[in-house]
Design brief:
The complex is a heterodimer of chains A (76) and B (385). With 76 residues, chain A is mainly β. Chain A is 0% helix and 49% strand. Chain A starts with a strand and ends with a strand. The mean pLDDT of chain A is 91. With 385 residues, chain B is of the alpha/beta class. The mean pLDDT of chain B is 95. Chain B folds into two domains: 140 residues, Peroxisomal Thiolase, Chain A, domain 1 (3-Layer(aba) Sandwich), CATH 3.40.47.10; 224 residues, Thiolase/Chalcone synthase (Peroxisomal Thiolase, Chain A, domain 1), CATH 3.40.47.10. Chain B has an eleven-stranded mixed beta sheet, sandwiched between helices. Chain B has a two-stranded antiparallel sheet with strand order 5-6. Chain B contains 15 helices and 13 strands. Classes of the chains: A mainly beta (76), B alpha/beta (385).
Chain lengths: 76, 385
Amino acid sequence: MTNEALSGTVQSHTVIRVPGKQHAGAGPFVLLLIELDDGRRMLGRFDRMEPPAISSRVVGSVNENETPLFSIAEVK
Amino acid sequence: MSTGVHIAGVGSTKFGFHPDRSLQSLAVEAARAALADSNLPANRIGWLFVGNFVGGIMAGQEFLGPIVAADLGLENVVAMKVEAACASSSAGVRIGYDLIGAQAADAVLVVGVERMTGATREALTSAMTAAIDQASEGHAGLTFPGFWGMIMARHMHLYGTTREQVAAVAVKNRTFGTRNPIAQFQKPISVAEVIASPPIADPIRRLDCCPATDGAAAVVLSSEALTRQYGSPSVRVAASVMMNGPVRIGDYREITVHDGTVNAARQAYARAGVGPHDIDVAELHDCFSIAEIVDSEDLGFFKKGEGGPNVTAAVRNGRLVVNPSGGLLSKGHPTGATGCGQIYEIAMQLRGRHPNQVPDARLGLTHNGGGTAAAVTVHILEATQ
């Protein structure tokens, strides 16, 4: 996936407060489980510290070898 | 006496803090206790499996099969390590069961051992996270508290499970732990204390988490003929099942339903010829307090979504008692040893010798989950006397 735009629904969330060594210094951060509109499920970071409600609509993007970053989708 | 594969003897160290002990010495203590309990001479053991998960990462020690065999004085045995994350030693029991059932062995010794205390939280988190697929979800920052935090948040959302119901699991198991002399934690806690403890991976808090634990437990499996010959105080293995499940949280169809547990339980009940409501006592993999609720539902003790208000009642229909050892939350979770530790607890229940004895317990179940519930064992044990 390169510069892929993503949209989907929040299935669940957590706040990682004690990360492993690979992410040392990065916590706390919000991790989301997203069901994308094409049916895939994936983990992604959220751009705020307060998790969104489950079933919220989110949009994001991902570059190769990066964890996707999501934000709340604007209501049109 | 019934036929088949038997648990001829069990042994365990105290679970908790053993900062001055090696993996080898803990394993040998538990193994010698199990051999003595079984009445079998050591030279009847043909196979040795050592269940261990993080010995290589935390202590730089691998190759535990031959090392423990040598320290036990076992000669001419097949000896090897078995690794299935937190289900490592119960995976060894699973293999041993088939060896004896296929008459490829008369007696198999399975030892589980782990040393975890003394490490920093970050080091321990990293070691445990080795059971998460590092190419995908580990890379995204998922940890095991995070995995179960997501499950807890969704369970609360879908089924209305409350923060208090989840905390009550930890309270119940700490209460059981006060009466188990080999449990790591032996002081009771309150729901208010659980909810006020520091957040680890929201909504999971510190007192929702099992501790880091040092310890070892061992099981001697034997044929019925050998059990009779030596007068072992045995219990029968009515079913031994291991199933895989999704290794990535993104692969779950629904994260509050763990297919590895559902499928392993279904097959175990079929093989034993019983159902979930025949079980008198169970030791479930409560690595986090929400896990006992999810597991109890997936094992068929309660309908999906009804574990929260029911599992903490401890006794269902006046019979089933869940985690009277204190579970992983109170007895402790020395990952590689936990599976054998659960079998130790149920064997003691079925022999009528447990400090939290369930009256007239005849049928017991152990449930041990490795990784993202991706390596699940279910054992059903039956009293023989």
